């Protein structure tokens, strides 16, 4: 199966311009998606069968990853492999075929959507006469371009250096760059390998020290938040599931939200007040992806600790994606690596996003399937249209503050300073102003709100 890019369908990115250099168009690239027919699809730890993605879905995701760094894709192809070659992964015939495509299309980069050993990467570069990126290298490139904060840059750079440490290929230009991660697509080339390794190790030690400082700072911030008891709710999910769109919908923030893989990288936290007044801290995190490089999981552990420490986790799924089940499995596997049990329905809420993209028949079927599951039924929403958002807020508030309770209070004239608070933190059903100047108020409030009301009344009575 092969796909050619039409001339008007190429990615037209704007490359960085450096003084003294001529402006250059986007890098021309070829994308190869190997599909191994005998590939082991069991989980490494549980040995349970893993869901297998379709070749079409893998192809589309690989193209999306390449587009995320504005590559000009001149050719994309899915290649079925019965017996991967230790030297080049691909068979000699396919290597020769792609070498011709690279030559005719003047491609500078070949992306192989599969992990490559250092030997395979080096041999493919020689045969194809182009720089070669495997899936891990490509994701590192994207993360390098997406990092905006110092912490994000440090994390990407650490992951990049650990990845490069054992690779004897012409991809060492990150040593001359200030921006972490983006070290494959340009630069002067390879220097002495042993010297590079020493520099790499020194930089790794330095970055780990800097990240440890970041981790301690984050711990301090987390400790301060715990002194003000605002529960933390973290949004996690497969990349492009709509996490930032949902975050914006819930908070009114302006976080970048685009139909693009890894549109946001650095975590964002905002304070949110739920409908009945319960305050929470909402956290938007980096998107997960299948075969997420272990270098990245390790490097981003400081950031992902926000998920580990969260009181509630929203597992957001793009329910309109044909591979949503496989994507959910990948997210659950990474959560398990972080020590979060996705099956813990008291701590994890499954949220089905993008239901506005489903026709009525598929929507009804999926919602019926979800209602009949042995787990807690998922919450169906559309972060774009707002459908289901009120129900999601109500469920979050119930988990964080308890079920709504019916209260009837008599507020004495000296306590009228509490009335405004009651209106802001509960649903006032009725109010009766009495002849003695007091007011009888009936309202619905969460358990935590009731406890706060009792505490405030007690202070007023004893003040």
From TrEMBL:
Residues 1-12 have a biased composition (Basic and acidic residues). It is found in: Cytoplasm. This is GTPase HflX. Belongs to the TRAFAC class OBG-HflX-like GTPase superfamily. HflX GTPase family. One of its GO terms (cellular component) is cytoplasm. Its main location: cytoplasm. GTPase that associates with the 50S ribosomal subunit and may have a role during protein synthesis or ribosome biogenesis. GTP binds at residues 237-244, 262-266, 284-287, 353-356. The gene is hflX.
